[in-house]
Structures are given as C-alpha cells and as structure tokens.
Amino acid sequence: MDVSVTDTPMDQLAEALGAEMEAVNALIRERMASRHAPRIPEVTAHLVEAGGKRLRPMLTLAAARLCGYGGPYHVHLAATVEFIHTATLLHDDVVDESSQRRGRPTANLLWDNKSSVLVGDYLLARAFQLMTETGVMRVLEILSNASAVISEGEVLQLTAARDLSTDEDIYLQVIRGKTAALFSAATEVGAVIAGAPAEQVQALFDFGDALGIAFQIADDLLDYGGTTAAIGKNTGDDFRERKLTLPVIKAIALATPEERTFWQRTIERGDQQEGDLAKALEIMARHGTLAASRDDALHWADRARQALKPLPDHPLRPILSDLADFVVARLS
Question: Dihedral angle at the C-alpha atoms of 207, 213, 216, 220, nearest 10 degrees?
Fold first, then answer.
C-alpha cells in the first residue's frame, strides 16, 4: 500500500478501503431513499453528505478485512453502523438544541425538531433492515444491544446533566454509551461476520471500546481549546449548554468553596454572564484538569493500541494502531 508519510491514519484507512467505502456509500444512498416522504432523503443527505469522516463504517470494514473476510456483508454492516450513528446525531441535535454540526447548520435548525426525530427513527429502522440481511443472529444481537446502550447513555447524560455530584465513573458510563458503544460494536461485528476466533472478536471489541472513550474525551477537551473549524461546533458550547464533561468534573472535585459557588451558578442554575467561560478555563488551568483529562485520553489510546496485539499480522493493523494515537493527537 503506497501512502505518503504525511497522510493521517484516517487517510490511509480511506485509501486502503476505498472500493469498499464506495460500495458502502452507494448502499447508504440507496437505502436512505423514500418513495413516499421526500423529506427523509432531504434531511438525511444534509448530514450524510456533510463531509463526515465515516470513521465508524471504516472500522467495520477494517475489522472484517483484518480477520480475513471475503464476503459482501461487511458492506451492509458498515452502512448499518453509519445509519445508527446518523440517527443518533439527528436526535442529539434536537435534545441539545444545537445549531451547528460538522460546520453546517443542523437539520433541526433548517427543518424542524419533528423532522429530525422522525427521520432519525426512519434511519434506525433502515439500519435494522440492513443488519437482518446478513442472516447472522450474533450480528443482530451486538448492534441491537449497542443501540440500547446508546439510548441508555443519552438518558443517563440527561439525568446527570447539571448535577454537580456527577463523578468520573458516571461520566465514563455516559461516554461508553453515547460514543464507545458504537465504536466497539462497529469493530466487533466486523470480526464476527468474518468468523474470527473468540480471542480476536474480544480484541476488536476492546480496541473499539478504548478508541471510542479516547475519542470522546479528546472531543470534550477540544471544546475548551479547539477551533470551531476543527471540532465542527462552536468552541465553548459544552460550557454554555452546561454539560458536565471530564475537565469540569475534575475541577468541581477539586473546587474551593468560592469555585464551587461559581460552578453552582453557571452549571446548576445556568446563570451565565460575560467572562464566565474565561473564568471556567482559569479554574481548570489552576487545578490542571485539562492536562489531567488529556492524560486520561492518552491512557485510553494506549489501551486501544495494546488491544490489537492478539490480531493477525496485516497491513491494516499498524494503521489502526496509529489511529488510536491520531484521535488524541488533535489535543497537541
């Protein structure tokens, strides 16, 4: 595989899986169509064609290829994973009242909340249709379980939101649900469809789980230090939306009485004033919680790399290993 040293692991994966990703994209376009409700492809295309990296479907294809799969159904599973992901984004933007996604206006802003929720539901139904076509019951079990865990994580986040007693264990449970569950399902089903031995299936599940956790911690950190272009949303959105992400949770745990009063006002009560974001950043810098959260992201990236050890020697394996570094390299 001839790739430039300047290519990112994402670029390398996209190049190695190019033909299969074309098949995935064609299947996505075919299955997001609707004869009776033109609003469905309109809303879906807005998000699907918005330039997302397609990381999750690429993970499914890579896992299947790494385990020696030669059949057609990894394409179905990759499209399934992307449909589940897109559905959750549509629902999330409604719940979060977001106005920007991947640098573009959200579907709920361009159309309305009802359209976003119902089109998300349609995509989940399409996802289940696709996965049944593989005829592999274990695949249905993994992806349906992941869908339940994703919803559970979102509800947990809702109930834990703005509650200053939310700790790091709850945060980890939330991000395992909202992000890592689909990463680990994406890699696990790739191994399962390939008929890989149990040790390899477990290794790919562990890789996806750790990669997803590292990815989400990095994403949460970027909200306090990334550019809008880099993260596809407005910097500081998490603070304005009063989300308890890892650097804030760590800062609250170490807070002085005065700092705790600040967090109660801005996060619990939502009484935010000019300069509060800068003050939040100052408090987090004082306690080193941004750096500590970055260390946590690096720890999970290392766990992802270690998980790959039982897998066969294959040109895709070092790319997946580099991918674990890449998801946290955005923090440097």
Answer: -150
Tens-level pLDDT at each residue, the chain (332 residues): 444 445 899 999 999 999 999 999 889 888 887 777 777 777 777 766 665 678 999 999 999 999 999 999 999 999 999 999 988 888 677 666 666 655 666 656 556 677 778 888 888 999 999 999 998 999 999 999 999 999 898 889 888 888 999 999 999 999 999 899 999 999 999 999 999 999 999 999 999 999 999 999 999 999 887 544 344 456 788 898 888 999 999 999 999 999 999 999 999 999 999 999 999 999 999 999 999 999 999 999 999 999 999 999 999 999 999 999 999 987 76
Residues 125 and 123: their CA atoms lie apart, in Å, by 5
* 238 CB-side CA count, 13 A: 24
The total number of residues shown for the chain amounts to: 332
Q: Compute the distance between CA of residue 230 and CA of residue 83 in angstroms, rounded to an integer.
A: 23
| Whole-model pTM over 0.85 | yes
In 10 A of CB 211, how many CB atoms?
30
| Residue 105 φ/ψ, nearest 5 degrees | -60, 145
- CA nearest 277: which of 233, 219, 236, 231? 236
